[in-house]
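To assess whether the prediction recovers the assembly geometry, we first specified each molecular entity separately, as shown.
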Amino acid sequence: MTFAWYSDAGLTAPLVRADFVRGSTATPVNRIAYFGSTDTGKKLENVDDPGVDPVQVTVVDSTVGPGVEAADVKLALSFAGLDSATGGAPLSIGTTILSGAANAVAVFIRITSAITTPSNNDDVSLQVLDWLESDV
Amino acid sequence: MAWTKRTLPGGALPFGVYGGNGRWLVMDVNTSNIILTDDFTAFTTVTAATVGASFPTHAAKGASRWYLLDDPGTGGFYRSTDGLTGSTWERINCNFRGGVETGWPFDAGHKIAVLPSGRLVVVMRTASDFYGIATSDDEGVTWTERHTTATAWTTAIANVPQIIGINGKVYAVIGGVLLSSSDAGVTWSTVTTPIPVLGFCAFPNGTIAISGNGDYLLRTSTNDGTSWTSTANDFNVFYGGSSGAAGYMLGVPAAGGPPQLFYNEGAGWFGFATTGVNSAVDAVTPPHISFAAANDLVVFGTESGTETGLWTETAIVYVPPPVIEPITAPLRLEVQASAALSLGMRLQVGVTGAALSLPARLAVIADGVLGGLNGSGGWPSAPLGRWRSVVMLDGVDVSAQTVGEIVIQHADNEARTMQFSFRPVAVMQPMSIIGRRVEAYFAQLGESGEAVAAQLMFKGILETPTINMQSGVISCSCHDQMQEIFANTPRAWIDANVGGRWRQEVSGEPADNFDYLEARRLSVPVSVALDVQQLPVVLPWRDGLAAETVQSADMVDNSLSVDLPSRDDLRTRITCRLQYRFERLRGRAVVAQYANGLQFYIGAGAIEASKLWLTTAMVKQSVEGLRGWTVESLSINNPPPGTYDRGPALEDGVYVISPSVAPDLALGFEAKCSTRWQQTVTQDYTVDVVLPALEASIGRVSEEIGATFEVPFDVRDWGTDETVQPVLALPTVGDVVQEWKPTGQQDADRDEVLRTLLDQAWVRLWDSSRSGRVRFALPLRPNLWLDNFVTVETASLNASGKVVEIEHRMDPETGEAVTTVALAVGLPGATGASLPTWTLPSTPAIDDTRPPETYSFEIGTFVGGDGASVPFDEEAMIGFSTNQEQPDLIATNFYPHQLSIRAPDVEALDRDPIELEAVAEIATTIPTDLLELL
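The predicted structure of the complete assembly is given in tokenized form:
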């Protein structure tokens, strides 16, 4: 498996966790994560119907209730798209994602949690499910 | 086959023969009588007077009577009143074009045909006003105009009209144009033919054939003229006829002689021998030949020549192809599914697995921890002074193993670095250290020693580990991969977020996108860095930054210092040099002319001696030998051959130029020549961007930046091969200049290069002024970063500037945690200024005006062998040098008999590189900062 999450568009710095830091005033916080592969000649598709069904990024809340809710997370393919995104909705990032930095997908993320208590909230994650990586 | 000569009564000369199938009518040109016969053995003569006509010329046989047209004179239309006997006739007053033609003035060149329906079709050329085709359905009483030719046709042999009905169609030939009608002559259309039609016939199988006057081809078409095939022969074919059994063409040999009759049933052309019939028929202008073809006989006659008369031959019997009755056998085609409807399948075996998960953390920190520097002297990040560091190595907390200080440094345009040491609890192999992910946090120390409100300060990789083999401590140098990340950042992101200008001519080709970023950044007042999450960030120098205020109480005691901008760092003037170099493709066309009169060569008696001639060979050799010039054309004026008097007196003699010699002699010539060359032009721009006030204050401190923008022209063979692109459009005489500036290397691109330099100059001026530094130290503030614009307010200093350097230093062993900040401060003033919109200096112009002598060839005339001839000077005597044919007795100087030509040189002004200078000075201002010493 070569596809993964990265901090930068050039897929240089692997991203093991997307950190969002803010004060106790509940304001939205944004960041970008990049999804792709630095290998050559690879592609990622939906395993159910490769090349037809889209590959999706979903928001998973491991502990419903406390912490950040899935609905607090908006995903989009552009910064402007965050404004109209629906919290918790999956994001389609294409039917076939080719490897290489030039084909990396920028995923814009916004957390709108109302949490004000100083804390580290690690209960949400972004997940790419049902993937199939194969040679081009 | 053999022709049978028929003897006509009264020595009649057959002008025309009509009819067929057992009844014939012959026109006698000798008497104007008509002769009727059934078998060409017994004849009945009917005089023209009996008919009522003056000169019957054409007739047609209907089903039950004859129809006849009269020629000029009384003209008129006649029909027999006794059936096909033809002994009695009546004249018809024709109703045509709204009037009654009592004496229809038929002109020469008309024909009449009877269609199977009885409809009469006439090709006529009246003496009055109608040229075309008319039909009659009441045996000639009423006529309807069917087709009108645009103009009259002549009565020349090449335009003899024809009209033939065959195969359900009617064909007419008028003035060489072939017309056809498929509706019995009502409507007509033109049949496309490759030549004007002279003879025409059609075959039973629908093929049509034509001949042209002097064409010597029999041309056939099986598709009504869409395409034609030709059969060559030696006969000029004049007449055609169709009998329903075959098509016939009657021709005359090219050399004259007996005519030849060709027939064709659709299987090729065959000839009837006519040898001895009439051996004196002219091939080009034959006499009238009477010709008719019917199913029983083919008849032709001649009215003049060595043998006149009428001959008959049995017609070709048309044998239709046998009708083969079809044998009917019912067939059934049963269609059954055969080939499978295939669907290719592929089993692609790839890799799949668990979700590609990206955990997210929302770290909420009390606002107070992140609070501003408000002069209260507090330490929001560690309110009680209790802090701890957290160091993660590849996701493993190694904080407990850290030894000594942890130092994290940030600076504009530089990677964030971190140095720390730790003593591993177990032996670590090198590859488990190098390149490992490193994170560092500053946190409040909880009651149980846990980290509270931890703030990320560093995220990157471990670059260089150094192991102290005595203590086992590993010292680690880490960085945030800034250069690597920017090198991999797409140019589109850089263009959109950094802005500015970039030109390869200014910066060269970047090694990677980090180089590209650095080059672009020179033209816009921004810095770049990675934020703590390793995301690229563009940091403006002034606007759009997070404002903070620092007062004395916030600072570590005695940590405030100021380094003012040094003169060494400052620039008052940046000189921008741009050399834009391109080629001008130049061409020049000239005409070399030289001429002498005839008398110059042949002399004039005793007054003027004759001279040796300029020769055609000399001209060609000299012109073609012009080095560097292409001869576009050469025209040599040869003397006309003849015998010329050398003077009025007999003893002056004559001068003879024979026709065989004249082409070798030349009175003069005109040669059009051209040449092509390149001229390099350099536009040299020198633009100073100046801060006048600063220069007045500290004197001139300047720096030069520059670029060379070369537009190469390396088209092979251009200049020697005038067909190589770009081809210059040369005038007859004069110059043409074409500047070689392909797309991407034109004036607009040059201006963009210059603007790039000017932008860089302005940014450089501002940057040089920002060399001042205000430094101070604070109790560690992990969230203070390069995106802060800090105002320092103390009793001794008011200053403001962007944070350009930060160093966080944590020493868990001593409990010291300090952030040292450096602000960039520029010239005092606290005023803003924006990057100017540049007005570029005007482009220097080139003076291309040249005096006309630029285009002059040097070709003089020099005569030796004369007593007055001076010694020959090869350098000075350029042109035609010759000698008197009879030299003076006192002559001592004789010249070489030759022609030399000196082509005009391309002057240095047109050939040498051109340097065009443009000098300008632009005064500007840059932003200044708050910098007050109190």
